[in-house]
Amino acid sequence: xxxxxxxxxxxxxxxxxxxxxxxxxxxxxxxxxxxxxxxxxxxxxxxxxxxxxxxxxxxxxxxxxxxxxxxxxxxxxxxxxxxxxxxxxxxxxxxxxxxxxxxxxxxxxxxxxxxxxxxxxxxxxxxxxxxxxxxxxxxxxxxxxxxxxxxxxxxxxxxxxxxxxxxxxxxxxxxxxxxxxxxxxxxxxxxxxxxxxxxxxxxxxxxxxxxxxxxxxxxxxxxxxxxxxxxxxxxxxxxxxxxxxxxxxxxxxxxxxxxxxxxxxxxxxxxxxxxxxxxxxxxxxxxxxxxxxxxxxxxxxxxxxxxxxxxxxxxxxxxxxxxxxxxxxxxxxxxxx
Length: 337
Fold this sequence. Notes:
9 helices, 5-stranded parallel sheet, alpha/beta, Heat Shock Protein 90
């Protein structure tokens, strides 16, 4: 901490006498002719002690002390008074938390020792204030962390019903699977859905961009997969969890195609997604897939159908030649259940 002093003293002769004496003790003393000037200096540099002549020309001492207590809590205050007045001294100490009071006539050299003691007290005060600030900051950080955890828990509680239903589907099918590949598929699907429901954010304002990004990640390394996303309309205030469900169904349809065409290196699959708002809260989504797969995977086929029935308010799936159309409606408004 800087061992420096700001001294409010309008009398140049007295100020110079103090300045020279403190210079000999390697203590920097800056003279201010008014309280305003002193506060300006304190705002620009670290100050350990404020030495005040009680006859401040522009401000009452009580006002100055109040400002220092509020804005510069680590600065120690010492006051110089002209006459010994026990009532005044008692008031200064008790009401204004003055550290030391010097009564005229002043012996500057004798004052130095006591002022240096005040500088030591200023260091202790500074460490205490910094420690208290650290505790307050740590408490604020803890409260913010606690709020984040509570918010995450609320999201998990909000999604619990859907997550529980979908995990029941996972493990119902898992009982009939004996190979490790099937179990790995279950884990992968579950992990993605759980993450989307509880932690990821969904940009409903650019839902077509969200689906396009998902498609790119899912089909990375596989040629022959293309996507055209038309007008993806989500009503204002669309419920986030419903948007997640639509996104997950799209993910499942693409994932199912990837698995079923694993050995079809030259196969071409074109996906098209569009939507339309049918009323204030209901939106119809249509996902079309053009291209045929080499084989069906019963587990994924059954799981996709059951998940569509679980998530969509109504649905219809049609097959014509090599084109499969998934037509689904969702209640997306704030009042949607």
